[in-house]
């Protein structure tokens, strides 16, 4: 028996399906053609040195996520780069003693100049938590300490949350991250690709209205409270846990006036420097 040829309607349907498959493949190839040069640009733009290691600021801000970040922040505090150290994104169950237990003993008078923020759970939350704290204490400059691969997205979020603040990037370079020749190290390559994708999502999100940063900039800063840290029940975070952070999930906008803010220490601060006299 001779094979039956496809009916005209079936042939037309197959042609349309094939055309959709071809268009989908071309669209994917076009996206990759745009995405890959962006990845190359992103990795090339990651800082490989601390460009400004000496300019003093109102506060040093350390984003949790690696022990080396805290170590660098403590070193900067000891060297007098700022009178205060604010650690953003600390687990609500973690105390200052627990945070410092693996660090070298601090000189006298430094412990009460370290303040913990327990609200943030990702990079967006870090920026909002820090902005609330800085605005409550009328500060306008900070030295931002985080990993070099995390710095571009952190600056993006912090500049959106603090558009008038002076932010000095102070990248940290983890030994386990092979920034040079990163494409030959699968672990580092995967980390950079993931961070680049998050950066793209963050940039797209910041183009949309009614984001958390816009709500922050339209809010009044809260007054400092008598506590020593932000309350654990008001965490700014995605519901799922992520070892680095979760910028892809929506971030609830919590009324900023409801956030108690860690007060400034009343003792142990260095006297303000006097400006040059004419």
What does this structure look like?
- This protein has helices spanning 8-45, 67-78, 96-100, 123-136, 151-161, 186-206, 212-217; strands spanning 59-63, 85-88, 114-117, 141-147, 166-172.
- With 278 residues, it is α/β, with parallel strands linked by helices.
Structure described in brief:
The chain has seven helices and five strands.
| Proportion of residues in helical segments | 25-40%
Q: Structural class from helices and strands?
A: alpha/beta
Put simply, the count of helices is 7
Instruction: Write down the overall mean pLDDT.
Output: 77
How large, in whole angstroms, is the Cα Rg?
Answer: 24 Å
pLDDT < 50 runs, ≥5 residues:
220-259, 271-278
The end-to-end span amounts to 107 Å
Q: How many E-type strands? A: 5
- Spatially, the strands of the biggest sheet line up as 3-2-1-4-5
Q: Main attributes?
A:
278 residues, alpha/beta, five-stranded parallel sheet, 7 helices, 38% helix, 10% strand
Secondary structure layout plus pairing:
Elements: H1 8-45, E1 59-63, H2 67-78, E2 85-88, H3 96-100, E3 114-117, H4 123-136, E4 141-147, H5 151-161, E5 166-172, H6 186-206, H7 212-217
Parallel strand pairs: 1-2, 1-4, 2-3, 4-5
Helix pairs in contact: 4-5, 5-6
């Amino acid at each position: 028996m001779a094979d039956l040829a496809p009916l005209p309607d079936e042939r037309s349907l197959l042609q349309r399906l094939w055309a959709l498959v071809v268009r989908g493949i071309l669209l994917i190839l076009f996206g990759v053609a745009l995405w890959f040069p962006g990845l190359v640009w992103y990795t090339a733009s990651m800082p490989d040195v601390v460009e400004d290691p000496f300019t003093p600021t109102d506060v040093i801000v350390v984003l949790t996520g690696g022990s080396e970040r805290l170590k660098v922040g403590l070193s900067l505090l000891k060297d007098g780069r700022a009178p205060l150290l604010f650690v953003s994104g600390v687990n609500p169950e973690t105390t200052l003693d627990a945070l410092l237990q693996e660090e070298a003993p601090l000189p006298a008078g430094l412990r009460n100049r370290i303040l913990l923020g327990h609200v943030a759970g990702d990079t967006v939350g870090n920026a909002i938590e820090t902005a609330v704290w800085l605005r409550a204490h009328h500060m306008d400059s900070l030295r931002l300490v985080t990993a070099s691969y995390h710095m571009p997205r952190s600056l993006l979020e912090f500049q959106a949350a603090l558009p008038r603040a002076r932010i000095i990037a102070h990248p940290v370079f983890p030994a386990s991250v092979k920034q040079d020749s990163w494409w030959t190290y699968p672990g580092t390559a995967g980390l950079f690709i993931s961070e680049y994708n998050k950066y793209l999502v963050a940039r797209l999100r910041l183009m949309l209205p009614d984001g958390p940063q816009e709500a922050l900039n339209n809010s009044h800063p809260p007054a400092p409270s008598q506590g020593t840290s932000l309350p654990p029940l008001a965490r700014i975070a995605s519901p799922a846990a992520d070892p680095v952070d979760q910028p892809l999930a929506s971030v609830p906008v919590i009324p900023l006036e409801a956030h108690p803010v860690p007060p400034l220490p009343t003792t142990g601060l260095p006297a303000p420097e006097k400006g040059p006299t004419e």
